[in-house]
Inverse folding.
C-alpha cells in the first residue's frame, strides 16, 4: 500500500517525506485555503513547490464543475509537472472529463466517492485513482472501511485497473483497516501516519533497554 499525505502544508509534507515512506501528496480546495493560498497563480506555484519536494503523484483539484472548465483547468494543472494528477469531483461532467483526460494521457483522481456505484463509473471512465472518503462516511453513521472492501472486491472481479485511494483518514486504525480491506493508497494527515509509530510497550521496552545499557556503558 502506498502512503500519501493529505495536506497542502509544506512543513508537514517535508516531515513526512523525511521519513522516507512517502509516495505522494493529495490536496483539496479546503486544504489550500487553510494554508492561506490566494489566487490562481499562487495555487499553481504552490503545487509546483510541492512537486519539487516529493517525487510521487501529487493530486491537484479543479474547482470548475462544467466539462469545458474542468478540461481547461486540468490541462493547466497537468502542465505544471509530470507527477500532477488532476483531481476531479464525482459529477456527470467530471466523469466526461476523466474520460477525456484518460484518452489524452493525463492522470486523474476522482474525488468525493461515497458509493460503490460511483467507484464503478469512475473506473469505467479510466480514472487513475478513486477517493472514497471513509472518515466522512463513518461520520454519517455508515462504515467507510466496508466501502473500501466492497470497491476492492468489485475491481478485482471486474479487472479494473483504477487504484483505490482511501481518503478522509482520521486515525492510525483507519490506515490499518484500509490496508486490510485492499486499499492501494491511504492519504493521511501527518498525525495519523505518526500514530502508526506508537505503542506503550515500545516506550516501556526502550526505556528499560536504555536503563540497562547504563550498566555496561
Ligand atoms: O482530501 C480529501 C479528504 O481526505 C478530506 O478529508 O478529513 O476533510 O474528511 P476530511
Amino acid at each position: 500500500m502506498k502512503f500519501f499525505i493529505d495536506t497542502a502544508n509544506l512543513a508537514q509534507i517535508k516531515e513526512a517525506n523525511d521519513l522516507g515512506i512517502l509516495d505522494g501528496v493529495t490536496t483539496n480546495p479546503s486544504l489550500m485555503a487553510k494554508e492561506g493560498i490566494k489566487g490562481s497563480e499562487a495555487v499553481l506555484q504552490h503545487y509546483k513547490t510541492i512537486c519539487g519536494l516529493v517525487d510521487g503523484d501529487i493530486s491537484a483539484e479543479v474547482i470548475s464543475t462544467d466539462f469545458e472548465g474542468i478540461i481547461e483547468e486540468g490541462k493547466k494543472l497537468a502542465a505544471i509537472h509530470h507527477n500532477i494528477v488532476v483531481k476531479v469531483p464525482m459529477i456527470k461532467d467530471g466523469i466526461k472529463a476523466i474520460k477525456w483526460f484518460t484518452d489524452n494521457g493525463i492522470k486523474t483522481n476522482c474525488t468525493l466517492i461515497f458509493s460503490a456505484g460511483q467507484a464503478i463509473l469512475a473506473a469505467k471512465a479510466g480514472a487513475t485513482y478513486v477517493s472514497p472518503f471513509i472518515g466522512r462516511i463513518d461520520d454519517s453513521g455508515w462504515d467507510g472501511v466496508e466501502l473500501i472492501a466492497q470497491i476492492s472486491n468489485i475491481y478485482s472481479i471486474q479487472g479494473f485497473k483504477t487504484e483505490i485511494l482511501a481518503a478522509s483518514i482520521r486515525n492510525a486504525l483507519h490506515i490499518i483497516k484500509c490496508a486490510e480491506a485492499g486499499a492501494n493508497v491511504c492519504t493521511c494527515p501527518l498525525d495519523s501516519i505518526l500514530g502508526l509509530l506508537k505503542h506503550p510497550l515500545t516506550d516501556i521496552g526502550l526505556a528499560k533497554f536504555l536503563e540497562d545499557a547504563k550498566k555496561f556503558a
In short: The pocket of SN-glycerol-3-phosphate is lined by residues 6, 26, 28, 133, 135-136, 167-168, 187 (CB under 6 Å). The beta strands are 2-6, 24-26, 57-61, 84-89, 108-113, 129-132, 163-166, 185-188.
